[in-house]
Amino acid sequence: MLRSPQVRNGVVETPSPSHFHSSVSVHKLRRFNILVVVFRFASFCFSLASAIFMFTNSRRGNDLPQWHHFDAFRFVAVAGAIVALYSLFEVGASVWEISRGATVFPEVVQVWFDFGHDQVFAYLLLSAESAGTSLARTLREMDTCTINNAFCVQSDISIAFGFAGFMFLGFSSLLSGFRVQVMSNETLKTSNSSHVIEENFYYPTIIYTSSTIYPISVGLYNITIFLKIS
């Protein structure tokens, strides 16, 4: 984030740019932010669609299954709604950064806010869709889907949209993790101690890589299971 020059004692001082913005050219930074907007908007659309399909998955009749009769399907609906709201906020924050050239919060806070919440909500969505997949498998082994196949089909669609939302949120998490790595490395490079740089240069890389690749791998495994039962 760039700040306006200040005049002190008759001398114009130009503050240094922020860590991430100083490491990436303006053109590359704009393309990076546009890619973030695309991923976050896709996560919003799929998560919202997942929540809508599950919330509307009700059939008239006392003997027919309803989505709110099952804990796992309630989890899918609520998780999709929460992630949709979060993704919508992040879309707005990314558009703000593109248009204003500055983050909504101070950049250090914004970068860690994005990375941390991406991790939390990615795991939330993954847990919900995994629970929904397990329940969908159980219902197909019973007579529920035979009696009311439309209910099972709509549940499958909702879960599929949820997995798609998770994947795009995972991609967004990779990008936010990249920003954490760049910012951390820039901080280490400006340190006066070469010993600190040597010991900690790869630490941010290990943290962000392990915390983003693992949930995506687990998500792909659960998607494979879901495709087998659908």
**Structural class, from helix and strand content?**
mainly alpha
The end-to-end distance, rounded to whole angstroms, is 47 Å
Strand order of the largest sheet: 1-2
The rough form would be described as elongated
By oligomeric state, this entry counts as single chain
Number of helices: 8
Q: pLDDT average, as an integer? A: 77
- Helix-strand pattern: EEHHHHHHHH
Could you describe the 3D structure shown?
Strands 1-2 form a two-stranded antiparallel ribbon. With 230 residues, it is mostly helical. 78% of the residues lie in helices and 3% in strands. α2 packs antiparallel against α6 and α6 runs antiparallel to α8. The model is unreliable at 1-7, 11-17 and 193-206 (pLDDT under 50).
Could you give the topology of this structure?
Layout: E1 6-8, E2 11-13, H1 19-23, H2 26-55, H3 71-100, H4 107-141, H5 144-147, H6 149-189, H7 194-200, H8 203-229
Antiparallel strand pairs: 1-2
Helix pairs in contact: 2-3, 2-6, 3-4, 3-6, 4-6, 4-8, 6-8
Please outline what is shown here:
The protein has helices spanning 19-23, 26-55, 71-100, 107-141, 144-147, 149-189, 194-200, 203-229, and strands at residues 6-8, 11-13.
